[in-house]
């Protein structure tokens, strides 16, 4: 089976046996913390490892990198890196690792930092691959600059390029935006989205930021006290009522959509997803452009009758109630809705839920006050 680091780039043919997936089963005990996970993750796309500080996100990443030695098994797209008889040390694992801090060599230029990383790979086209990474991350104009003269966002882009240059079979990123201010985060996020679109290898992304999860992830693993309490596709996992990923005020779903219509007079665009469509602000979209929608539960209301045209809410969707869960406070309920093939969440008061007499299986109308394109 052929794999590709970049979708329009270098090809090679490694020996694969089990199919495209990361299988990670680890057990690691410390005095005050234990990691105990059994995961099967996609062999391509971005998997976010999400949870509060101390939940085990970085420990799991270090186990995959071989920086910790847990009991268990690890295979990456069919290649076994660890089992009962085998443990590949870090230097023999074909991976790239990007830390919170870029950890660049201050005595070398950007070019020197990038070419230094090539010493650990025997990949015959490594120079071509490095050139692709430089173009992908738009750092060509920085090559002769000292790393001490880079901004935080530029440093991280160089660190990512260095990690890609070794032809990794998996890219590990440990909260790469945590040390950056908001301006630098906005600077580097588009490049992370480009990685999401261009890389054919899996990217495991540690974060405690729900915004980064919504913007980048395809698959979501929620960790708590060293255990994976949920693992699955982003949309379905965010919609689970038994696993509140965020406080009620921030509960939301993320839907993949496509721009199918524009209203130039009112600067609006219609985004279609699996089950319906909503009007959003037109951010100079192109027709057919793929986007991600974030719909907050607090921006969804319910009614049993089709709302009047005079209602100020543009977006009204036919839905079926799937489940009703408790919020963080007794006064709040979170309702899981099904809109076509897509889930939706609604946050309402317990009193409203009782007045509407809602129950699972009931057909209702969901009114969406606001749907945001994730930028």
Can you summarize the main beta sheet? 6 strands, mixed
Alpha-carbon distance between the termini?
35 Å
Indicate the CATH architecture of the largest domain.
3-Layer(aba) Sandwich
Name the average pLDDT. 88
Structure summary, number of beta strands? 22
CATH superfamily of the largest domain: P-loop containing nucleotide triphosphate hydrolases
Gross morphology is: globular
* CATH C-level label of the largest domain: Alpha Beta
- What would you report as the Rg, rounded to the nearest angstrom? 23 Å
Detail the poorly predicted runs.
8-18
Spell out the helices and strands N to C. EEEEEHEEEHHHEHEHEEHEEEEEEEEHEE
Number of domains: 2
Proportion of beta-strand residues:
35-45%
Structure annotation, total helices: 8
Q: In the CATH scheme, what's the topology name of the largest domain?
A: Rossmann fold
Structure, explained:
The protein is of the alpha+beta class and about 375 residues long. It has two domains: about 5-240, Rossmann fold, CATH 3.40.50; about 250-375, OB fold (Dihydrolipoamide Acetyltransferase, E2P) (Beta Barrel), CATH 2.40.50. The protein contains eight helices and 22 strands. It has a six-stranded mixed β-sheet with strand order 8-9-10-5-11-12, sandwiched between helices. A five-stranded antiparallel β-sheet has the order 15-14-13-16-22. Helix 2 (about 110-115) runs parallel beside helix 4 (about 150-165). It starts with a strand and ends with a strand.
């Amino acid at each position: 089976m052929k794999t590709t680091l970049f979708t329009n780039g270098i090809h090679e043919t490694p020996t694969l046996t089990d199919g495209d997936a990361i299988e990670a089963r680890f057990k690691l005990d410390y005095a005050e913390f234990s990691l105990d996970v059994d995961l099967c993750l996609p062999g391509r796309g971005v998997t976010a490892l999400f949870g509060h500080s101390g939940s085990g996100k970085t420990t799991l990443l270090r186990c995959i990198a071989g920086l910790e030695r847990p009991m268990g098994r690890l295979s990456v797209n069919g290649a076994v890196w660890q089992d009962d008889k085998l443990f590949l040390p870090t230097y023999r694992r074909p991976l790239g690792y990007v830390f919170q801090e870029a950890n660049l060599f201050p005595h070398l230029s950007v070019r020197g930092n990038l070419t230094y990383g090539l010493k650990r790979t025997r990949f015959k086209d490594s120079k071509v691959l490095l050139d692709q990474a430089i173009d992908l991350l738009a750092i060509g104009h920085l090559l002769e600059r000292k790393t001490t003269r880079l901004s935080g966002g530029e440093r991280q882009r160089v660190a990512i390029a260095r990690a890609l240059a070794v032809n990794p079979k998996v890219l590990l990123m440990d909260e790469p935006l945590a040390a950056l201010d908001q301006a630098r985060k906005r600077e580097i996020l588009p490049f992370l989205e480009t990685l999401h679109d261009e890389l054919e290898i899996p990217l495991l992304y540690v974060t405690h930021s729900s915004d980064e999860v919504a913007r980048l992830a395809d698959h979501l693993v929620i960790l708590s006290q060293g255990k994976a309490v949920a693992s699955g596709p982003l949309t379905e996992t965010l919609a689970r009522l038994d696993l509140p990923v965020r406080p009620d005020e921030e509960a939301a779903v993320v839907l993949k959509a496509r721009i199918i219509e524009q209203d130039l007079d009112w600067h609006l665009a219609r985004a279609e997803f699996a089950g319906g469509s909503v009007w959003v602000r037109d951010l100079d979209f192109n027709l057919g452009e793929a986007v991600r929608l974030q719909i907050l539960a607090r921006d969804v209301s319910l009614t049993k009758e089709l709302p009047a045209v005079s209602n100020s809410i543009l977006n009204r969707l036919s839905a079926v109630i799937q489940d009703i869960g408790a919020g963080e406070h007794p006064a709040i309920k979170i309702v899981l809705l099904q809109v076509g093939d897509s889930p939706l969440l609604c946050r309402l008061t317990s009193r409203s839920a009782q007045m509407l007499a809602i129950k699972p299986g009931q057909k209702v109308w969901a009114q969406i006050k606001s749907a945001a394109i994730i930028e």
